[in-house]
Structures are given as C-alpha cells and as structure tokens.
Design a protein that fits this description.
Elements (H helix, E strand, L loop, with lengths): L14 H13 L4 H16 L12 H4 L1
Length: about 60
C-alpha cells in the first residue's frame, strides 16, 4: 500500500476551537490533524458526501 502524499493547509480559528481540538485530540490520543480528518470523514460518511479524487493537472510542457 502506498502512502498518499499530503499537502499543507493553513487557516485561522477561534481560541475556543483550538482548545477543543487540543482537548479531543489528546483524549483520543490522536494528532490534531488526524482528529480533524476523522471528524470530517465521519461527517461526510454520515451524510453521503463523496469527493472525487482528482489528479493534479500536468503542465502542458511536461506532456509534450
């Protein structure tokens, strides 16, 4: 099994959000990133939301 390449993401949150994220991640012994992924994936699964995986577009120069 090959690991999926990760990308960086950055956004601002309220102090309350950050504190709750730290709290629930520690309680479940997860990283904060893993906790956010788990919560989002569970949310989408419960609601039948599916995102199609897309390949990054190649530069036209690379395809010639």
């Amino acid at each position: 099994m090959t690991a999926e390449k990760t990308i960086a993401i950055s956004f601002r949150v309220s102090p309350r959000f950050k504190l709750l994220l730290e709290t629930v991640a520690a309680r479940d012994r997860r990283s904060q990133t893993n906790m956010l992924e788990t919560l989002l994936f569970d949310y989408c699964e419960k609601r039948g939301i599916v995102a199609e995986a897309t390949e990054p577009k190649k530069n036209e120069a690379e395809t010639k």
